[in-house]
Amino acid sequence: MSSSLSFVPDAPTLLAYVLAGFVLFITPGPDMSLTLARTIGGGRRAGIATVIGTGLGTLVHTLAAAFGISALIAASATAFTVLKVVGALYLAWLAVDAIRHGSALNVRAERVRTGVWRTVWMGFGVNLTNPKVVLFFITFLPQFVRADAPNPAGQLAFLGVTFVVMNLPLGVLLVLGAERITGALQARPRVLRAIDWLFAGLFGAFAARILMTAR
Length: 215
Known about the structure:
Elements: H1 11-26, H2 30-42, H3 44-66, H4 69-75, H5 77-100, H6 109-114, H7 116-128, H8 131-140, H9 152-179, H10 182-186, H11 189-211
């Protein structure tokens, strides 16, 4: 491979990485739960805004991994603990918000239009403060970069960006699938309220899991 493309892994490695990334995408987590919750509560725009926000958070983690910041956080007990607490508190706040201002109260288009950027930042915050994402970038990505690679930092960045590029269309498909049932759910406020409690429970469970994540 030419030096100008030293940041690109070989084809078998890239294929294995794409398959593994797809498995990770379909595994439920805070990002997926938030995307579904915002899609049901605010429609397609809110769902896609959440996908964009989580993608931006992943880009930040990619840059951090490439420059070794993620490894530094994982090596520091204090930094990792702070990240865990911030991420757990943020998810706990989302759980409370789902109960107080649930999807049954957030189906008007006007609220969707004014809340798109807030939703983007919400997705960004959930992704950025999740220490499991940090662990992903310091344990999962390096498995696809050889120790003797000519440009390991470049390959880490390339794989991270590839993960974002993969997740964007998959996230949009997830949003479109959830949107198909939104109309039926809006006619059943009790069902929507039950979903609010379900998502609140999921966010609370993810917050607890994050707090229990070992360094």
